[in-house]
């Protein structure tokens, strides 16, 4: 007797209630080529197809058991390519040097590479250099791609504008020539019309003093306009007027069980670490979630850590997208173009 004739009514009702993702897994296990997209009754389609192919109740139950033990990787979309641009500034000529930005970039690079991203790292650049690199990169990223942009380094905020402070930034009388604004970044990345753009700013958002930095305040009256092509997620590692923390490990002959103040000479004993935000982000990247849900979990981790940073997420566009989504284009061609464009810039730039 056929599957539909012998299956119990409660089992059949559960089968009808299966969602599209579960039906896709069962169909793949049964080697059936079915398209459940836009279907209001995926469970009914699955059961009728299994019945036509002669599956028994025992075989259907076995498929269910196997599906429960199968790790599912949901596909929300197939972008043309996936490109991660990881920017780290830690060696400043005038401002205090930082420890973790380039380490953060390297940690993210290894994690995102495993997810199929083309990786571009940009380290310790002036504002003019960074803008030049980014313009060239955005010109080569094909439309309908995923762009993941991460910045770690010094930063500030004024007139509701976030600014990435580059390595040539002075301590006072800062001008727009010393920084890259968030608005400029979003305006330039829109050139390649990404299906998804993720911008993460892991930096302090201290407000600059107006009297010691008059030039940049005057320039903020002409801040760049930008447009959003499709789906945009912006994450700030901390709130306005707040600092972002680095996580350091220091080789020490005595046990430290309280807050430790870094002293002169300690920089030579600093062990590799990460910023609090980058550490939480790398931990959550292994989870197959849509990007918005993944960032929510990262922010939840941040709020429960010892140094209570309160990250902020801004989202435009509600379509679910995942960093695990497979690409449909030839990523090797795009990688070769990027390598060719940046082959003479190996001191501060890597493409792989």
TrEMBL record:
Source organism (scientific name): Papilio xuthus
Domain Caspase family p20: 80-157
GO BP term, example: proteolysis
UniProt-recorded Gene Ontology molecular function terms: cysteine-type endopeptidase activity
Pfam families, sorted: Peptidase_C14
Xref: Gene3D superfamilies: 3.40.50.1460
Protein name: Mucosa-associated lymphoid tissue lymphoma translocation protein 1
